[in-house]
Amino acid sequence: MESYKIYSEVTSGSGAGRPLMVKRTFAKEITLVKAVGRGRFGEVWMAKWRGGFVAVKIFYSIEEASWRRETEIYETTLMRHENILGYIASDIMGSQSVTQLYLVTDYHEFGSLYDYLQGQYCDKFDMIRLALSAASGLAYLHAEIVGKQGKPAIAHRDIKSRNILVKRDKTCCIGDLGLAVRYDSEKDTVDIAPNKRVGTKRYMAPEVLNDTLNTAKFEDIKRADVYSFGLVLWEICICSVINVEHHLPYWDKVPQDPGFEIMKEVVVLQNTRPPIYDVWIRDAHMRVIGQVLSECWHQSAPARLTALRIKKNLAKLDIEMKKSQPII
Ligand code: ADP
Ligand code: MG
Ligand code: MG
């Protein structure tokens, strides 16, 4: 679906940042159907719009800055990519007393990768499809496209299976761009002052947990994404292990909603990572994915693969797997 430029007339939003001009008609065409997700800033609904379905992320009005920021990221030039959640529009809904902020995107009925993987058995081919498509999304996000109509490099800063969606064709797209930051390579600056320890603690890289990430170096912010991505790859792989349920990384080491201290203890001090299973080592293809994921979550950030390298390694494996598949 094409995205709509609706910031043209009528009213301006209040609150922080530049005034956002919003035409108050788009949201009125939308009928909310059912709630499908809940996050930090509000709710996500499946909704009807012009004969099809869309997803509407509704922000509480006190979260206007978050809504504005996520909108701004989605409206970055060249943000459309098959492995990035497709943005449609943002709008303000409601009267002066009750305001709701809408961020409208493509709707994906399988929901998040986390939801999809629950109780799911994946064979090697399912796994590589999910892994390669998610890696392509991250590589695209991280890449700078040079030129007048170019795209800045973007770091996500909250990579996890709940922020990745599964499309009908069982490929992934990356969503929840609310914490993302953009890099201006000419000025060598990041577009907002990146407060250091944002994201989800369970998925935080060691250098984020112990507060040593140098946020002035954009390369380092991207490397923290790669660590989190390694954990997501592990979650995808675990669905190939018979008799093992889907687990969040460190499920056996930390409680639900863990704090900094316990995460630091496990990830930084003990240098623990989720288990690599025997079956991944015995199978030549699985071994490659196992190798990739362990090169993502290195304690030393510069030793990690780049998102582009992850994508290339997985693409090569995908080709090899297809070649080795018996022709029926
Ligand atoms: P938050 O910023 O509040 O975490 P997210 O954008 O991550 O919000 O969305 C929260 C949850 O809503 C996701 O984990 C997913 O389950 C569901 N969701 C989000 N976007 C979509 C979508 N486009 N299609 C289907 N489900 C979605
Ligand atoms: Mg989220
Ligand atoms: Mg968010």
From TrEMBL:
Residues 30-328 form the Protein kinase domain. It holds the Pfam family TGF_beta_GS. It catalyses: L-threonyl-[receptor-protein] + ATP = O-phospho-L-threonyl-[receptor-protein] + ADP + H(+). ATP binds at K57. The keyword Kinase applies. It is a single-pass type I membrane protein. Gene3D superfamilies: Phosphorylase Kinase, domain 1 (3.30.200.20), Transferase(Phosphotransferase) domain 1 (1.10.510.10). Its EC number is 2.7.11.30. Belongs to the protein kinase superfamily. TKL Ser/Thr protein kinase family. TGFB receptor subfamily. This is Serine/threonine-protein kinase receptor. It comes from Trichoplax adhaerens (Trichoplax reptans).
